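anyone seen this seq b4? input:
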Amino acid sequence: MRNVFERLEKHIIVKNTLFIKKGVPRLPKNRNNIKLSFEGDDALADMVRSSRTIFRNFDSTTSALIKINLNSSNPYPASTSGGMIDAVLHCLLDLGIKKICIGDSSGLIHLPTRKVINRKNFYRFKKYGVKIKVFDYGRWINIPVDSVYFRNIVLSQYIYEYDKIINLANLKSHSLARFSFSTKSLVGFMHPNQRHDLHKDHLEERIAELPLAIVPDINIIDARSAFVDGGPDIGTTAEAKTIIVSNSLLEADLIAYDVLFSLKRKFGIHDLDENPYSTKFFNHFMKVTGENH
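predicted toks r here
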């Protein structure tokens, strides 16, 4: 009976298009350059020690949305590490920030997201006084974009409700998109129904168009461990012992690409070209955003 209700809930989540209103792109107001990498066994501790640099545009009056990776409930690096969430919360709480929300919407086959959060035991973070939100329900924002494959992108209303968005991504090979870094993580903001269109064709290029609608304030790619093949929910795990931090999606993803490329070569996997600009994703990203490295 539980499975019947979950299938019905999933159907409602995907088909719910009743509460969509028009909006504008959600872009950061302050784009001070931040680009940091932490390597080695102490990468997470080093990141926490650098929190005043990473979150230098935050203060006690700031409200923050932490967008995690809940594609599935499978262990890190398939989904966000609980240790990484703990570390970021520690940084924000140390700044005196009181309005904090953690949220995401799971991969289509793993919906509803509340089930994934339960399996990950992430509701435990409420002990910090933070909110836990799923993007499955509620109102949605239809954002017109001037692009090639999307004419509009439908995102969760939560993108407007917080001063800062922190994008917690993982470093993964991806069976369909080739790789999954900080820009791919933005798919979790999308209306589940539109994600069907995302996967129909030109997946890499469509992902590259998401920054026309939303750009997080900070991107943190947790590459301490990574999938060197498969992905996004199952793959061969390798240790990279790296954390990448940048307020630029392009910068973060370029560094992540180099890390994944090197890892794959160590495992004898040659399915990525050494030059990231030869990929459809990076080529299209720079074309539609006008951003260059």
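The longest helix spans residues 249-266. The longest strand covers residues 164-174. kinda curious what u guys think
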